[in-house]
Amino acid sequence: MSLALSCLAGVVLDALLGEPKRAHPLVAFGRLADALERRFNGPEGRGWRSHGVTAWCLAVLPLTALAWLLARLPGVGWLVEVVLLYLALGLRSLGAHALPVARALWRNDLREARRCVGHIVSRDTTALDVPGVSRAATESVLENGSDAVFAALFWFAVAGAPGVVLYRLSNTLDAMWGYRTARFERFGWAAARIDDGLNYLPARLTALTYALLGRTRRALHCWRTQAPRWDSPNAGPVMAAGAGALGVELGGPAFYHGERHERPVLGQGRAPGARDIERALDLVWAGVGVWLLALLLGAWLHA
């Protein structure tokens, strides 16, 4: 019951407060990661895989051990766990970034919608039409719902404060180092593979959650037939199931850094619109409610 209540408290804190406006610990961690990357990868990206492994260990393992020690402090350990989960979650942040896109589309302000969606996706947004903007934002909500919400809850449930810290820092390093570019292809290999491993089970549980809360049969069909063609082993199931659950079509061609990428189609149905961005957010929130209810019910049955 303590674990379930801690999860509930962390979600409530995130819903009430959102991300810290100042001095977010991940900002300081990002500076540490930059310093380690410069030290072990060099200014020209000459680091090998072993250098990336060493840098990852130095960045993640001491802070994970610190979280374990703090969580064991008598009297306040439970509070440390709740705060660390709150800092790892990005549930309210999803809405804070995606809803301005939807609102701009409702106002028929395509220029503002392109600007807002450009803050949450890495693709080129300057030439996107309304379905393109809606598609990009909906994909971001579904994928980040898995990465920034469900995976954090999963690892907290599995391993408490050390688990959620290990996961969140690993996910951050993947976002910083896990690129298939000349600079990071070797150095960032470990960060990308570790993040893939840590997200494997949470992503599939997220996909199942999306499917059960939407058009289940269609979502499961899209997951089974479309996800294997997606380049990410974890984003594919999440977005295919989410798109199927919502009854919209995501994926397809997109431009990144001026180059056209032929991405597979995900989901089945009509092109997405502003309302579907909001529906994707509703799907994530409903999924969090189901997970919390399952944790509380499981704790009650166990007791």
UniProtKB/TrEMBL annotation:
The keyword Cell membrane applies. It holds the Pfam family CobD_Cbib. Its main location: membrane. GO terms for cellular component: plasma membrane. GO terms for biological process: cobalamin biosynthetic process. It is found in: Cell membrane. The chain crosses the membrane at residues 53-71, 78-99, 148-167, 280-301. Keywords: Cell membrane, Cobalamin biosynthesis, Membrane, Transmembrane, Transmembrane helix. Pathway: Cofactor biosynthesis; adenosylcobalamin biosynthesis. One of its GO terms (molecular function) is threonine-phosphate decarboxylase activity. It is a multi-pass membrane protein. Converts cobyric acid to cobinamide by the addition of aminopropanol on the F carboxylic group. Belongs to the CobD/CbiB family. This is Cobalamin biosynthesis protein CobD. The gene is cobD.
